[in-house]
Specification:
The structure holds two protein chains of two kinds. Chain A contains 14 helices and two strands; from the N terminus they run ααββαααααααααααα. By secondary structure, chain A is mostly helical. Chain A has a two-stranded antiparallel ribbon with strand order 1-2. Classes of the chains: A mainly alpha, B mainly alpha.
């Protein structure tokens, strides 16, 4: 029984019953919302420590805001839409689809498991250009395969526009990033002790209760760290937004590319790239610190 | 372990279809006999694969990619093997910092790397050259080579080495006949993963490549921006086939989940 975490960090750090689910509030809300919550509650507490430098939550929040405003100013009054917000939805899709898939995969028997793992993780190493081209073909025009399928299922009445829209970009990016989420949740599932599930089953818990109260709390760190990876990769993604978004719908990476190689405004391009890097580092390091603090016991 | 219910299996089936669909559709369209984008409804044809030969810039880009991938992953290994052995075996000041530094190219978005390398290589007068591409690729693929080599070096049984030393083997002989064969699976997987990363990289390379040193992904991307026709699908299908072959080899020799999750041999 030593493998089972003996206590979970409650909101006040008091050891609690391991079978008690995490407080609802701990699982609710997006990372930014929870970050804001933490800032409001414990603005003076230490959030980051890098070498000699340390940042409290309040200071981290102010720094992140400075970067965000700087980014907005540098790009002018929104003449070109920059979709730094985009990863939010990509991340949600990958989490909602990827996490259950990893769970299902984990329960399969040996040979099927390795076969499907190859099928799902394989795309990770296949050229992003080829994968995005696949989506461009599936979306293509009003009679693209995706639209035909959705219409024949009666889900939509008229064809949706996927090419050159944010919807298409999100769908394709979610596909490109999916293996990272599956991998991350997969790693968390490997640490899960199947005996706890069996114990819950023997105590009369329904399958839904087991997933909600036993499995979910334990793989949540995996889901969240997967979300961070997906977030940072899709915020800086280039090929997929460029091919699906065309020349009009731009994200930070494609904007930097255009400034460097088309309009030849190198300083602006470098500024966009630098802001992207700083914003990503702040968000990733900040949310990592949050997750590690909240789920310290599960990581041990 | 409990079995998956029908609901879970349905979800799984839909998930796998979605994951495979874009790749499958590219490969299918590549075999179309028509002159435009369409699924091959009446018969398969190889005309678009033969058409690749009529576009020398694609053939050239393919060789550039292949050479760059092979060379950069090899050079990266030349650095990664000694680095991995040192980090896995010795405790010294700054060891963790060194390991973090070696893995740091993984954390930096490739756009930022591309911008930085472009600025750097232009200011030292190497802009657009193959050598510049090689240096940049070595730096980017180095963490992948290091991670797998490190995993193999950490999990290695050192008593075999000690036995060899007690029998009088030393220095180079020890490395060539004992250490290297022991970590070879990790080294080969590291090479394959590094090769794939270099072969597929678009985001950073597009900043550095000039006409003549364009890699295949760059050439494909620039072509797709203007028009999408069956030619790019047949090229993509070829690239997919090459990557799949490397992938299956990697899975057979080392296990794909281990390669991607970067688990060590001892972690099982």
């Amino acid at each position: 029984m030593t493998a089972i975490p003996q206590s979970c960090p409650g909101s006040n750090g008091r050891p609690t019953n391991p079978f008690e689910p995490f407080p609802k509030a701990a699982l609710a809300g997006s990372l930014p919302a929870r970050f804001a919550q933490q800032v409001a509650r414990r603005g003076d507490r230490l959030a980051l420590k890098m070498g000699a430098e340390s940042l409290a939550y309040g200071a981290l929040d102010r720094a992140a805001n400075r970067v965000a405003h700087g980014l907005l100013e540098a790009l002018g009054a929104g003449s070109e839409p920059v979709a730094l917000v985009l990863p939010q939805s990509v991340r949600q899709i990958t989490a909602v689809l990827g996490a259950p898939e990893a769970y299902i995969l984990n329960r399969m028997s040996g040979r099927w498991k390795s076969f499907f793992l190859l099928v799902i993780l394989g795309p990770l190493l296949i050229s992003v250009v080829a994968r995005t081209l696949g989506w461009a073909l599936l979306f293509g025009g009003n009679n693209g395969l995706v639209n035909k399928l959705l219409m024949s299922l009666g889900l939509i009445g008229s064809p949706l526009r996927f090419m050159f829209t944010e919807t298409g970009m999100v769908v394709a990016l979610a596909h490109v990033m999916m293996p990272f989420m599956v991998l991350s949740v997969w790693a968390a599932l490997q640490r899960l002790d199947p005996q706890i599930e069996n114990a819950a089953l023997s105590l009369g818990a329904s399958p839904l209760t087991i997933i909600r109260r036993i499995v979910m709390p334990q793989i949540m760190p995996g889901v969240l760290s997967g979300a961070i990876i997906v977030f940072s990769l899709s915020a800086s993604a280039f090929a997929t937004p460029a091919i699906i978004g065309g020349r009009r719908l731009k994200v930070a990476a494609t904007l930097a590319y255009d400034e460097f190689l088309n309009t030849l405004n190198w300083p602006l391009g470098a500024a966009v790239a630098t802001l992207l890097l700083v914003a990503l580092v702040l968000i990733v390091v900040g949310s990592n610190a949050l997750i590690e603090r909240r789920y310290a016991e599960v990581f041990r | 372990m409990r079995r998956n219910g029908p609901l879970a299996l349905t979800f799984h089936a839909i998930f796998v279809v979605i994951m495979v669909a874009p790749i499958a559709v590219v490969c299918l369209v590549a075999f179309t006999p028509e002159g435009y984008l369409s699924l091959p409804t009446n018969g398969f044809s190889l005309r678009w694969f033969r058409a690749i030969a009529n576009y020398p810039e694609f053939v050239h880009a393919f060789w550039v990619s292949l050479g760059l991938g092979a060379l950069s992953s090899f050079v990266a290994l030349l650095f990664a093997v000694p680095a991995a052995l040192a980090i896995a075996r010795y405790k010294f000041r700054g060891r963790d910092a060194l390991a973090a530094l070696f893995l740091s190219p993984l954390m930096i978005p490739h756009v930022v790397l591309g911008v930085a390398f472009l600025r750097f290589f232009t200011s030292i007068g190497m802009g657009g050259s193959f050598a510049a591409l090689l240096v940049a690729h070595v730096i980017v693929v180095f963490p992948f080579a290091l991670r797998l080599t490190l995993a193999a070096a950490t999990g290695m049984d050192r008593s075999i080495e000690m036995a060899a030393v007690s029998l009088g083997a030393g220095g180079w002989t020890l490395f060539r006949r004992v250490t290297l064969p022991l970590i070879l699976p990790g080294v080969i997987s590291g090479w394959a993963l590094a090769f794939i990363q270099s072969f597929d990289d678009l985001t950073m390379t597009i900043f550095l490549a000039a006409p003549g040193t364009e890699t295949l992904p760059v050439r494909m991307f620039l072509y797709i921006q203007d028009n999408i026709d069956p030619l790019v699908t047949s090229i993509s299908a070829t690239v997919i086939a090459i990557t799949m072959t490397a992938l299956i080899l990697l899975d057979r020799f080392y296990g794909l989940d281990r390669v991607l999750a970067g688990k060590s041999d001892t972690g099982r």
